[in-house]
# Entry
Amino acid sequence: MLPSASEKIPTPRPLVRIGIIGGGLMGREAASAFGRWFALENFPVRAELTAVCDLQPALLEWFREVPSVRLLTQDHRALLASSEVDVVYVAVPHHLHERIYLDVLRAGKDLLAEKPFGIDLAAARRIQAEAKRLGRFVRVSSEFPFLPGAQRAFQLAHSGELGRILEVKAGFLHSSDLDPAKPINWKRQTEFCGQIGVMGDLGMHVAHVLLRLGWKPSSVYAQLQKIYGTRPDGKGGTAPCDTWDNATLHCVAPIAGHPTPVTLEMKRMAPTETNTWYVEILGTDRGVRYSTKEPKTFWTYRRLKEQTWEKTDLGFGTPFRTITGGIFEPGFPDILMQMWAAFLAERAGVLGDRFGCATPDEAVASHELWAVALDSHARQQVLSVS
Ligand SMILES: NC(=O)c1ccc[n+]([C@@H]2O[C@H](COP(=O)([O-])OP(=O)(O)OC[C@H]3O[C@@H](n4cnc5c(N)ncnc54)[C@H](O)[C@@H]3O)[C@@H](O)[C@H]2O)c1
# Structure
């Protein structure tokens, strides 16, 4: 268990040395979390970023500003050969996941993988099997459950206080792709992002809390949309934009033995939405609703003669205490740091009853759903998920 606020933690605290492969958007976000690790209070493990690999020299230059980084390389095998790296975070395009994740595992390192954990179900299963065979500690990045509102929603759903669950809705919504002049990038091309498109890009975020509650869909009817077929290639021409942009999955999940409607939305073209992650769980006794659109607002109702949504303002109620005042609002960098704290606490065996990072089994379970969703859309049928 983690030490309490007053308990003395042993000094010196063990140091975990981290290497990053892929120093783009997410690689740099991770570096920022380690850069202020000291903000975590009484946390039993120190974390230090020691090595970074990216193909782009300009990004490696950016990491020169991080004082603890001792190795900068364009070859991920050089990073994996370093004795100064214990844990590797890999944040590269999806077509590279399998090759690089397997290299990490075979180099004897533990892994925080990025979603979707392989470009497709077969790749995800191979990574899962190798991690198991080698006995490495592997988790998958999904930070939104570490928001105080998401934590409260999970805890209430887990407690049984909601009564019989009537229905569940969860989603992750973006809108910047509505702009047809937005240039192409790898996330909009099947070759690099995968056939599952937006489900691979946003789906783990939507599925994590529900899978952790044990609410895996047993059937799905999927509606998938491709909206713009091409985009500017950034060089004066156009390039194919061939991934699914929007996905709505109408599922049934057995919850406490009852077939229960579960609707999952993953959309790059949801007008007015900017990184909106939400979950809504309605029960016969109580219900919860939380969305990053109102990041500190937590909605609940109770079954009375009339039901009324009640609104609670949340403060900095993150799972791991930091120096930040309890009334302040957390944001994306905070929850990313919380996710890393959960990863390193679980790796050290001190997570206790806190919410943990997504597991390889959960990532494979999400891939099983996305694979059947592709088939369901193609056949326009409700299909069973194994
Ligand atoms: N957890 C989240 O909230 C979240 C958000 C965005 C993306 N992601 C995931 O993170 C991963 C990366 O996405 P991103 O948005 O950071 O992408 P990005 O394009 O910003 O960064 C990817 C980086 O990988 C580098 N790269 C490519 N091939 C490489 C190789 N062989 N060796 C080393 N580096 C290589 C690229 O140069 C680039 O800098 C994806 O799996 C994506 O789904 C997660």
About this structure: The mean pLDDT is 97. Residues 76 and 380 are 42 Å apart (CA to CA).
